Amino acid sequence: MIAIIPVRDGVLPLGADETVAESSGNALLIGSGAKAAGAELTTLRRCWVMAADAYAPAAWASGLARNMDAYWGHRGRLDPNMDAYWGAWSAVLPASPDGRDLAPRLAFELGVPLLAGAIAVTEHGAQLARWGSRVIDEVEVDGPFVATLLPGAGGTEPAGVAPEITKLRWEATQAMDAEVLDVLPPDPRTADLAEAPRILAAGAGLTRGNAPSGSDAVAMLEKLGEALSASIGATRVVTDAGHADYRRQIGTTGVVVNPELYVAFGISGAAQHIGGLGSPDNLVSVNTDPSCPMTARSDLGIVTDATALLVELAERLVGKEVTGG
Fold first, then answer.
1. Which of 168, 201, 232 is the last residue of a domain?
2. Are residues 135 and 276 both part of a single domain?
3. Cβ(88)–Cβ(112) under 8 Å?
4. Is residue 207 one of the residues assigned to a domain?
5. Structure confidence at residue 78 (pLDDT)
6. Is the pLDDT of residue 88 over 70?
7. What is d(CA 312, CA 325) in angstroms, rounded to the nearest whole number?
């Protein structure tokens, strides 16, 4: 397998390292500043670089298909010099916005199946997350395919070696494409949790208090999240009680996340929740139990009532009108 990593101005997409690791360290980086971006990939072993034009998914997919035919012979014209590396191959892209945009177009150009939303990819197929990650569908494919890997689903064990880098000639193609006017930052309120850099999460300890009520506490957390440019997550206890939407549920039966900052309000750290947490750069636990699993694994443990702290933070950062104070 080979990872296809779209790069914009030297910036890697979310989940790039995981996608390369899933492809045994083999990657093709395409875009502006692709070679410099490759230096940031810790899982990279063997790298091919294409300095393509500005991002245009239809043109990139067409150009990639043509170049892949020339170098790896997907349609039966295998370059004998590359036979030791590839033979029959499949491509894996990160399920980032650009990856999700490029993957179906590339699959169409190559005439192969698309396996979207994978949590694991093998040479013969993939495990696909369905129904809000509540169902795992195992799919096997007879032949090559294109897959997208969900961010936070894979591991990123460093390769520990200097990667082999080969520069490939980019052959641009003409294709009808949408014009990119601007790239806007995601709205934390509606962003996919798997891609959220900051998450404030509500647990049972936040929603079982007398004042505010569970739904009011989550609403207050949302206001605090807006002030901190953070998305809102929740445990299954909170979503089952109807205090938060199921799309906000984090865990083995919900969304898998891997944010830069994760603040757990009243979350003890059950295995089902921890299973979807990934490895946040900074983990803060707010809980009355100093020995609970979430506090034990946190970078900063605040031993206090989660609701009381939320009210105080909301008053300071949002305003007393939010808390009714």
1. 168
2. no
3. no
4. yes
5. 36
6. no
7. 10
Tokens of residue 169, six digits: 């000639």
Q: With contact defined as beta carbons under 8 Å apart, do 232 and 218 qualify?
A: yes
Helices marked H in 141-229 — which ranges? Answer: 204-207, 214-228
- In terms of Cα–Cα distance, which of 313, 180, 194 is closest to 251? 194
- Tokens for 287, please give them: 């809980």
Lowest mean pLDDT among 12-26, 174-188, 229-243: 174-188
What are the pLDDT digits (tens) for 30-47?
A: 998 888 888 889 888 888
CA distances from 171 to 27, 70, 77 (A): 18, 10, 17
The order of strands in the sheet holding 2-7 is 135-140, 125-130, 114-122, 146-149, 91-94, 2-7, 26-31, 46-50, 164-168
User: Is the Cα torsion angle 290, 293, 294, 297 positive or negative in sign?
Assistant: positive
Residues 237 and 274 in one domain: yes
37 and 97 in a common domain? yes
Nearest to 41 by CA among 202, 157, 197, 195: 157
Both 162 and 199 in one domain: the answer is: no
Q: Which of 205, 206, 204, 186 is nearest to 196 (CA)?
A: 186
> Containing domain of residue 136, as a range?
2-168
Q: How far apart are CA 250 and CA 117, in angstroms?
A: 16
Residue 62 predicted with pLDDT over 50: yes
pLDDT at 313: 93
Task: Count the Cβ atoms, other than its own, within 10 Å of residue 118.
Answer: 25
Is 176 part of any domain? no
Question: Is residue 136 located within the same domain as residue 240?
Answer: no
* 109 within a domain of the structure (yes/no): yes
The CATH number of the domain where 7 resides is what? 3.40.50.620
CA atoms within 13 A on the CB side of 13: 30
110 and 7 in a common domain: yes
Same domain, 164 and 199: no
Number of domains, the chain: 2
Residue 184 lies in a domain: no
Query: Do 30 and 8 form a contact (C-beta atoms < 8 A)?
Result: no
Number of helices and strands (H, E) in the chain? 11, 14
| Residue 37 CB contacts under 8 Å (≥ 6 apart), including other chains | 5, 7, 10, 11, 12, 29, 31
